[in-house]
C-alpha cells in the first residue's frame, strides 16, 4: 500500500526549480561542484578509466559509513595516494597479509560515524568484484544487469551492506561520470528508460518542507524512502526533468544551506541566505526539525514540522523574521548591516569543514 500521497504539480514545480538552479548555477549554486566530481577532477590526468571507476566505486561504498560526502572525498584521496591496494581488488586477499590489511584499513578509514561492519562489507565486496565477468571493473555491474531501473538496483545491491539508496547513488554517480568520459557507459545509460534518485534524509525533509507530500501512512525512513525514490523518478520522467540535475539541486539545497537554518544550527548568516538566495524560498512552507528522539526511532518527524515563518520569528531562535513585519524588518536590516550574507565560497568552506552544516 502506498504510504505517501503527493501534491504532484507542486512536486514537479519543486523538482523543476531545483534542477534549473543547479544547471544554471543560480545563487546558492554558483561555483559549487559536487563532491564526486571534485574527487574525479582531483585525480592526476593520466588516471585511466578503470582506476577512475574504482575510485568512484570506493567513494560510493564509503558512504555506508554515514560520514559527510566531503569527508569521504578526503578519505578516498588519501587511499588513492597512500594505499591504493584498498581500491584495487587485485591486491586484496593475499592471506598472509590479511591482518595487516585489516589494521591499515582501520587506520585509514578513521571515520567517526564508521560502522564496525564496514570492513567486512568492504572485503566481501572486493571479493565479489574479482569474480569472473566483473573482472575488478565496477562498470561491469551495470552491463550485467537487465538495463532496467529495478534490474540495475538489484545488480548493485547484491553487494553486502548496499540497499536501494546507495545503489541509486552509484547509478547516478556513474551516469554523471560517464558523460564526456566513457562513451560505452554513457550509451548504456542513454538506453535506460528510467531514472534514479537516491532519497536520503534531506530529500525526505525537503519534500515535506516544500509541501510536496500531502498526507502519509508512515514517515518512517525505512518504509518510505524506496517508494519516494520510485515516485520522484516517475515524476521527473513525466515532466521531462533531468533526474541528475534535480538530484544535485535538491541534495545541495539541503546539505549546503538548509541544515544551517535549523534551530540547532541557528545563525543569522544562514537565515539571510535562505531568504535571499535559496531557490526554494517561494515554495518552502515549513521546517522539519532534526529531532534526535524521532530520528532514533526512524521517524522523519513530518507531523511535528514547524511553520517556517513562525520559527524564524521566534526571538528565542534569534533568527530573522521572514514575514516582513516591523520587528522582522528591523532585525533583518540590523543583521544585514553587521553580517553580510556568506559568499558561495564561504558556504562551500563551511560544508567541507566542521562549521556546522549537515
Ligand atoms: S528553509 Fe530556507 S534554506 Fe531550507 S529549503 Fe526552505 S527556503 Fe531553502
Topology as a string of helices (H) and strands (E): EHHHHHHHHHHHEHHHEHEHHH
How many beta-strand segments?
Answer: 4
In the sheet with the most strands, the strands line up as 1-2
Distinct small-molecule ligands in the complex = iron/sulfur cluster
Radius of gyration, in angstroms, nearest whole number: 21 Å
Domain count, please report it. 2
The poorly predicted ranges are: 262-267, 317-341, 351-358
Our measurement of the CA-to-CA distance between the termini, rounded to an integer number of angstroms, reads 32 Å
**Shape summary:** globular
Q: Approximately what portion of the residues adopt beta-strand conformation?
A: under 5%
Sketch the major β-sheet. 2 strands, antiparallel
The mean pLDDT is: 79
Number of helices: 18
Structural class: mainly alpha
Helix content: 55-70%
Can you walk through the features of this model?
Helix content is about 55%, strand content about 5%. The two termini are about 30 Å apart. The relative contact order is 0.13. The protein has two domains: about 15-30 and about 195-350, no CATH class; about 35-190. The chain has a two-stranded antiparallel ribbon with strand order 1-2. A two-stranded antiparallel ribbon has the order 3-4. Residues about 260-265, about 315-340 and about 350-358 have low confidence and may be disordered. The protein is mainly α and about 350 residues long. Iron/sulfur cluster binds near residues 258, 261, 278, 280 and 281.
Amino acid at each position: 500500500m502506498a504510504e505517501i500521497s503527493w501534491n504532484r504539480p507542486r512536486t514537479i514545480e519543486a523538482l523543476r526549480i531545483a534542477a534549473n538552479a543547479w544547471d544554471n548555477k543560480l545563487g546558492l549554486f554558483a561555483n559549487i561542484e559536487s563532491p564526486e566530481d571534485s574527487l574525479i577532477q582531483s585525480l592526476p590526468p593520466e588516471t585511466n578509466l578503470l582506476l577512475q571507476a574504482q575510485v568512484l566505486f570506493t567513494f560510493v561504498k564509503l558512504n555506508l559509513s554515514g560520514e559527510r560526502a566531503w569527508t569521504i572525498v578526503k578519505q578516498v584521496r588519501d587511499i588513492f595516494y597512500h594505499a591504493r591496494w584498498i581500491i584495487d581488488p587485485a591486491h586484496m586477499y593475499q592471506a598472509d597479509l590479511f591482518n595487516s590489511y585489516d589494521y591499515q584499513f582501520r587506520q585509514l578509514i578513521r571515520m567517526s560515524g564508521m560502522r564496525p561492519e564496514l570492513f567486512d562489507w568492504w572485503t566481501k565486496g572486493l571479493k565479489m568484484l574479482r569474480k569472473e565477468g566483473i573482472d575488478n571493473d565496477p562498470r561491469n555491474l551495470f552491463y550485467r544487469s537487465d538495463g532496467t531501473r529495478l534490474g540495475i538496483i538489484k545488480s548493485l545491491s547484491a553487494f553486502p551492506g548496499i540497499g536501494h539508496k546507495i545503489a541509486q547513488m552509484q547509478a547516478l554517480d556513474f551516469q554523471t561520470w560517464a558523460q564526456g568520459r566513457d562513451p560505452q557507459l554513457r550509451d548504456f545509460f542513454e538506453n535506460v528508460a528510467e531514472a534514479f534518485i537516491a532519497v536520503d534524509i534531506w530529500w525526505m525533509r525537503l519534500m515535506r518542507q516544500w509541501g510536496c507530500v500531502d498526507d502519509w501512512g508512515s514517515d518512517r525512513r525505512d518504509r518510505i524512502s524506496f517508494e519516494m525514490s520510485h515516485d520522484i523518478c516517475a515524476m521527473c520522467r513525466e515532466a521531462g526533468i533531468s533526474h541528475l540535475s534535480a538530484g544535485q539541486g535538491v541534495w545541495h539545497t539541503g546539505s549546503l544551506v538548509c541544515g544551517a537554518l535549523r534551530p540547532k544550527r541557528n545563525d543569522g548568516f544562514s537565515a539571510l541566505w535562505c531568504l535571499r538566495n535559496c531557490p526554494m524560498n517561494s515554495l518552502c512552507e515549513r521546517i522539519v526539525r532534526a529531532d534526535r528522539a524521532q530520528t532514533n526511532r526512524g521517524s522523519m518527524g513530518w507531523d511535528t514540522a514547524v511553520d517556517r515563518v513562525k520559527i524564524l520569528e521566534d526571538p528565542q531562535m534569534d533568527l530573522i523574521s521572514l514575514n516582513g513585519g516591523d520587528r522582522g524588518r528591523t532585525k533583518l536590516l540590523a543583521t544585514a548591516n553587521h553580517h553580510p550574507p556568506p559568499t558561495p565560497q564561504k558556504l562551500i568552506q563551511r560544508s567541507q569543514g566542521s562549521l556546522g552544516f549537515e
